[in-house]
Amino acid sequence: MAPEKEVQGGVEWRVTVPEGASAVVEPRPVNGWVDLVRAWLMAAAGFGRKAWLIGADDPRKVVHGVKVGAALSLVSLFYYTRPLYDGVGGWAMWAVMTVVVVFEFTVGGCLCKGFNRAMATVTAGLLAVGVHWIASRAGETAEPVILSASVFVLASAATFSRFLPAIKARFDYGITIFILTFTFVAVSGYRVDRLLHLAQQRAYTIVIGVGICLLVCVFICPVWAGQELHLLVSGNMEKLADSLEGLAEECFMEDQGRQLPSAKSPGYKCVLNSKASEDSQANLAKWEPPHGRFRFRHPWSQYLKVTAAMRYCAYCMEALNGCVASEIKASEKMKSHLRGVCVKLSSDSSKVLKELARSIRSMEESRSIPCLVTEMKRGAQELQAALRSLPEQLMSAGGEEETTADGGGGENQRVTVSLMEGMPIITAACLLAEVSERVEGVVEAVGALAALARFDRKKAAFASVAPQDESATPQRQEV
Amino acid sequence: MAPEKEVQGGVEWRVTVPEGASAVVEPRPVNGWVDLVRAWLMAAAGFGRKAWLIGADDPRKVVHGVKVGAALSLVSLFYYTRPLYDGVGGWAMWAVMTVVVVFEFTVGGCLCKGFNRAMATVTAGLLAVGVHWIASRAGETAEPVILSASVFVLASAATFSRFLPAIKARFDYGITIFILTFTFVAVSGYRVDRLLHLAQQRAYTIVIGVGICLLVCVFICPVWAGQELHLLVSGNMEKLADSLEGLAEECFMEDQGRQLPSAKSPGYKCVLNSKASEDSQANLAKWEPPHGRFRFRHPWSQYLKVTAAMRYCAYCMEALNGCVASEIKASEKMKSHLRGVCVKLSSDSSKVLKELARSIRSMEESRSIPCLVTEMKRGAQELQAALRSLPEQLMSAGGEEETTADGGGGENQRVTVSLMEGMPIITAACLLAEVSERVEGVVEAVGALAALARFDRKKAAFASVAPQDESATPQRQEV
Question: Which of A82, A172, A327, A477 is most worth mutating to test chain B (most B CB atoms within 10 A of its CB)?
């Protein structure tokens, strides 16, 4: 929250790494050209290092770059090869443009844009030819007026339609191409007088461009938006599980260990921050054909419900993290009383999440989920019981330690005071119970996903989430 | 989470309204053409109604559509006017394309894209001419090889560079245009032999296209990304304040009133969901010149720190909402003991947020913030005191009511049990204290914003956030 620093007589290099953290390289005074060049080289080296890290982290990104280069080289053959030049060469420019604009990282993105481009070009072309035909019948003076008016009205309406969420999500790119093509055909028709030939040429080039894009995109190391989403969801669920365990450990750790915060805990932040990429991947996955283990009409939108349930957990964990961050002053006695049940509950919840993640990743219904959920609910009940027995525990401990008791009433007084001072740890325990309850929402969402996506049942039977043992149902309102 | 319904022999219309809720229009059987037409008309009417609602909600969206239409009509004049046609008419297509692609809703978006397009075209054009010059010196056979290789290498590298977050955020569109222009010039130069003339033509058309875009965008009802962000942040802060009050009221409301949940509370969800639009607006605002009350180098990125602090509050409120949703079984006695302090604290915190929102909106430093913060801290202290005195209160109340006391120990036992049963309400109170603490983070972030943006001090003096009264500092660890 500090203002941007101005370093006098020096250069400050702030390297933003993908995760959003930033590393500041110490400024040094610049003396003449040598240092300036050195500074530039260092900046270039930093940039190169960053690029290298990104490439090393996900080599498919490098492959994507190479694929675009290959597709463009392929399409530019239309310029070099003379026979082809005489065919569509004059318009080969459009094929180049199609490749540059349509080629996306995922197959879904490529298909979405390719479809949008093709459909928008055909629709707008036909409409423009129609308008042009009407305008040409209206006489020399009226023709430009009709054409201009049609361009104005259609461009305005199409631009406005982009604000409709349903259209924005699917046809945003198509609208751009629609306006572009309509304007080109409607307006250039006034000059060129070869409208149908022009339309035919554009259709060829679109087919060539989109075809090359799809061939390269699908057949050379394809990246499927659906699979990305699938892996993102299961990966984030594992992070959530690790994070939950880490938070409980940190919160109920013995005081001497508190200097070493668990490296696991920030995992839930990934869940909080990945909504945008999940939405876009689910959107693109719908354009993709069946691939790998994903059938036709795989329930991609159900993944969004799973991630919403995960975020619901993560919000609660964020509040729990607030408890961890505050210095907890609860007596070691109270902590040790709650530590066992809390760590157990968090580990139970974490096990459920990990099993769900495994079930999603392998696309197999899990046989152990009902047991794990029952175990987690039992853990929640134990936590409630521990909370309820807390005053007695403290009382008996107090009685044992301090033998100079000043009567029962005073002791109870002390107990209630220490109870009230232990409030943050009790709040943490309650939040943990709340998280475990929200994990049940995740179980439900994943169960629906398993049913919709027809997860493999050969190895396992995914029983109902309802507890088999009625007595194990936690009485939520009491915690 | 239910699977998509298949309605046999009927049509189901699911209308998704912008907020994400969906209204399902009852399906009706389709009997022949009349009903089919009627169904289509109903769908069209539904679509029209939605469009009307969006337009009525923000008429600037309609104006934006009209602006795009006007800019396109203006640029298509280049086709109709013969003298102009002879000048750049053949390339006027590029001006049309520039207008369609560059015209964005906000001035910042338009400037960003215009700058990207212009810079990328110039850079790529110069580079391509250089490569072409080298290739033409290398002989008939080597020329296409050099050109193809340069296209391949540059397109691959440029595509990969998009994965660098810093480049993605600012120059994504520029990279597309860079690849496009480089390919065009490098490849078409092989045929056209009029490279410099071609480059000059493209420069003209870009200038014309971007010029028309900017003229229309800036001078006809401009929408500034900066102002949008400014209003979004202050508006969301007010929603957060209302929401906080609403949640506390719901949570501590008397039981007979619980059927009516406050309409205010979901406001914090706006804060949770608006990260993407805040990020993009802050990004675009940096491209904008000084406008209205915003000076050159207005600290747009500080707004993101304010919204991060607000989200930090909202996470905690989400957990609090979980408490509200659960049926709270605390005794009316306990509730009424805590109600006063909790509602006061939430109203104090809410007042702070509202004052901050007012301060941001009017861009004036607020004189009352330090007092309000002190008041809020006092409220937090009172809440702590109330929590600490809770056992005594319950004890005395229990003593008054139940005269058939079975000794002091039994009474204390009862008290501690009822204490433990009231856990959700105590957790809610603790979360409320945590929210009020996080509100201090918002105060700090807004204070930094006020300093960086030099908010108006004429009317008020924005004192330090540090409490004037040291004794008023809440002892956080005790709640």
Answer: A477
Residue in the block written with tokens 């028709």: A189
Q: Are A27 and A12 in contact (CB under 8 A)?
A: yes
Angle A195-219/A92-102 helices, nearest 10 degrees?
A: 40
**Residues β-bridged to residue A456:** A364
Q: 3-state secondary structure string, A250-310?
A: HHHCCHHHCCCCCCCCCHHHHHHHCHHHHHHHHHHHCCCCCECCECCCCCHHHHHHHHHHH
Average pLDDT, chain B: 78
According to the model, what pLDDT value does residue A476 have?
Answer: 41
| Residue spans of alpha helices (H) in A29-164 | 32-57, 59-80, 82-88, 92-102, 107-137, 142-161
Chain A residues in contact with B85 by the CB 8 A cut-off are 191
Instruction: For A417-466, write each residue's pLDDT tens digit.
Output: 566 667 778 888 888 888 998 999 999 999 999 988 888 875 544 444 44
Three-class DSSP category at B27: strand
Please answer yes or no on whether A65 and B159 come within 8 Å at the CB atom. yes
pLDDT tops 70 at residue B73: yes
> Is the pLDDT reported for residue B233 higher than 90?
yes
- Given a contact cutoff of 8 angstroms between Cβ atoms, the answer to whether B338 and B390 are in contact is yes
Q: Among A73, A151, A419, whose Cβ lies nearest the Cβ of B72?
A: A151
Which chain B residues are within 8 Å of A303, Cβ to Cβ?
none
Q: Find the closest chain B residue to A383 by CA distance.
A: B420
Determine the length of chain A. Answer: 479
The answer to whether the beta carbons of residues A285 and A300 sit under 8 Å apart is yes
Nearest to A404, CA basis, from A414, A390, A391:
A414
CB atoms within 10 A of CB B462: 20
Name the DSSP letter for residue B54.
Answer: H
Average pLDDT (A102-131) is 89
Mean pLDDT for the stretch of residues A368-393: 85
Supply A64's token pair: 């994507």
Is the Cβ pair B427, A430 closer than 8 Å? yes
The pLDDT value given to residue B10: 37
pLDDT number for residue A417: 59
Report d(CA A462, CA A379) in Å as an integer.
22
Q: Is A180 left (phi over 0), alpha (psi -120 to 50) or beta?
A: alpha
Give the model's pLDDT for residue B178.
92
B165: pLDDT strictly greater than 90: no
Cβ contact (<8 Å) for B391 and A419? yes
Give the range among A301-315, A317-331, B134-148, B159-173 with minimum mean pLDDT.
A317-331
Output phi, psi for B10, to 5 deg: -150, 175
B326 pLDDT exceeds 50?
A: yes
Task: Determine, for residues B318 and A322 on separate chains, whether the beta-carbon distance falls below 8 Å.
Answer: no
Instruction: Tell me if A152 and B93 make a contact (CB, 8 A cut-off).
Output: no
Q: Give the pLDDT score at A266.
A: 79
State the distance between the two ends of chain A, measured CA to CA, in whole angstroms.
38
Distance from the B368 Cα atom to the nearest Cα atom in chain A, whole angstroms: 22
pLDDT digits (tens, 9 = 90+) for B369-396: 889 999 999 998 898 888 877 766 666 6
Q: What angle do CA B195, B198, B200 make, to 5 degrees?
A: 110
DSSP A383-405: HHHHHHTHHHHHHHHHHHH--S-
Chain A residues with CB-CB distance to B101 below 8 A: 176, 180
* Complex ipTM: 0.78
Chain A CB contacts of B66 under 8 Å are 156
Using a CB-CB distance cutoff of 8 angstroms, which residues of chain A are in contact with residue B164?
A: 47, 50-51, 54
- Nearest 10 degrees: Cα torsion B310, B311, B313, B315: 170
Both tokens assigned to A293:
């283990």
**Would the CB atoms of B328 and A387 count as touching at under 8 Å?**
no
